[in-house]
């Protein structure tokens, strides 16, 4: 099921999506994990966004809004500056305590 995830006003079409609650130091925190495609044209903007590592996160279909940071981040490629390339990204964001 495709899901929209909004990170600091940037809409991302998630191909896979999971939402769970994680207990950290006695606090229940939202944690989402999702995968998405990034094209060579989007690469710079997406990676620049992710380097901030302090986000406003919204998932409209889940009625979920929180401030979060990256818990885990993987990609199938390390350089998407070549034209017409597409990479698979996986991102786990956790609510800031």
From TrEMBL:
Pfam families in UniProt: DUF3219 (PF11514)
InterPro entries noted in UniProt: DUF3219, YkvR-like_sf
Top-level taxon: Bacteria
SUPFAM superfamilies: YkvR-like
Protein name in UniProt: DUF3219 family protein
Organism: Oceanobacillus bengalensis
């Amino acid at each position: 099921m495709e899901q929209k995830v909004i990170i600091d006003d940037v809409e991302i079409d998630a191909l896979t999506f999971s939402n769970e609650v994680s207990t950290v130091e006695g606090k229940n925190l939202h944690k989402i994990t999702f995968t998405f495609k990034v094209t060579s044209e989007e690469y710079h903007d997406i990676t620049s966004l992710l380097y901030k590592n302090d986000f406003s996160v919204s998932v409209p279909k889940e009625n979920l809004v929180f401030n979060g940071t990256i818990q885990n981040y993987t990609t199938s490629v390390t350089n998407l500056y070549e034209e017409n390339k597409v990479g698979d990204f996986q991102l786990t964001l956790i609510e800031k305590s």
